Amino acid sequence: DDPQQLARFEARVAADDFIEPNDWMPETYRKTLVRQMSQHAHSEIVGMLPEGNWLTRAPSLSRKAILLAKIQDEAGHGLYLYCAAETLGVSREQMIDALHDGSAKYSTIFNYPTLNWADIGAIGWLVDGAAIMNQVPLQRTSYGPYARAMVRICKEESFHQRQGFELMMHMVNGTPDQREMAQDALNRFWWPSLMMFGPPDDKSPNTERSMRWRIKRDTNDDLRQKFVDATVPQAELLGLTVPDPNLRWNEERGHYDFSPIDWEEFYAVVRGEGPVAQERMQARRKAWDDGAWVREAAASYETKHASARIA
Ligand code: FAQ
């Protein structure tokens, strides 16, 4: 990189300027953004699967309508994010190929199965809750198209989180069995939700540079702690027990202390060994193959109209 251009870029970022698609940027900045934004987009798309699993079994029409709207929002988020990433000179096909051949990641959380209806509540409450904690600061990420996509996404995620909490509220006020389902969902989703924030700061190879370039505005551990601090009182309100015997308020730190995370499990899931990882990828590849005729029809429609415009 040209040192003068780099210095100008660094100064702009440090002054909280947004970097736009036609602005000069270091190649590593561009690559980091393509990686993070495409992985974020893939997470939204793969994230439809665990919830889609319950669409035909939602217990009422209104729950079904809410769930359907939420899943459609996730598809929209994926699409805005792919569009925003395309402004960095990568095509959607390239990004999707990378997902399908396993070279691009998606959030570990979506490799866990949804076993009971309360899991839908737990996903909204915890998974969307964690996603918001991470995405609200990204509204001020230094790359303009990514920051702007985040504004709308955060509004929708906030509705997702609320519907999840409200569903949990119904479950805990229902029959003893329903209450047990809510506790079971919390037991299974708590630790994977904390893992969503990524490896600890001292094992996170990208954090330092991404913080300097203001791609990330907070570190993984800081966001994880914020999430724990915000969520524990919500669990108390629900009358549910967070599955961590060492969880306690630390007056001195002004934060909750919690047990060490099982990072072996995290890395195994990142490597593609999660409980339903293979099913998730098979479902995505099948959806892509089944949709081939739509892409072909759209392309041939476009060609026909382009030649009509010329004629
Ligand atoms: N899963 O150096 P770091 C949602 C990878 S959206 C898998 O700390 P970085 C909405 C990481 O990529 C959820 N891989 O990396 C919804 C890197 O590998 P690489 C998604 C992970 O980028 C709700 C390596 O480990 N949100 O849920 C994970 O600085 C409900 C080293 O890590 C976003 O993507 C993980 N959890 O920080 C949808 C937000 N963590 O790429 C449906 C944007 C780390 O070098 C239903 N992304 N890795 O090969 C970010 O903020 C960041 O990318 C982090 C990771 C914080 C995820």
TrEMBL record:
<dbReference type="Pfam" id="PF05138">
    <property type="entry name" value="PaaA_PaaC"/>
</dbReference>
<dbReference type="InterPro" id="IPR011881">
    <property type="entry name" value="PaaA"/>
</dbReference>
<keyword id="KW-0560">Oxidoreductase</keyword>
<dbReference type="InterPro" id="IPR052703">
    <property type="entry name" value="Aromatic_CoA_ox/epox"/>
</dbReference>
<protein>
    <submittedName>
        <fullName>1,2-phenylacetyl-CoA epoxidase subunit A</fullName>
        <ecNumber>1.14.13.149</ecNumber>
    </submittedName>
</protein>
<dbReference type="GO" id="GO:0097266">
    <property type="term" value="F:phenylacetyl-CoA 1,2-epoxidase activity"/>
</dbReference>
<dbReference type="InterPro" id="IPR012347">
    <property type="entry name" value="Ferritin-like"/>
</dbReference>
<dbReference type="InterPro" id="IPR009078">
    <property type="entry name" value="Ferritin-like_SF"/>
</dbReference>
<dbReference type="InterPro" id="IPR007814">
    <property type="entry name" value="PaaA_PaaC"/>
</dbReference>
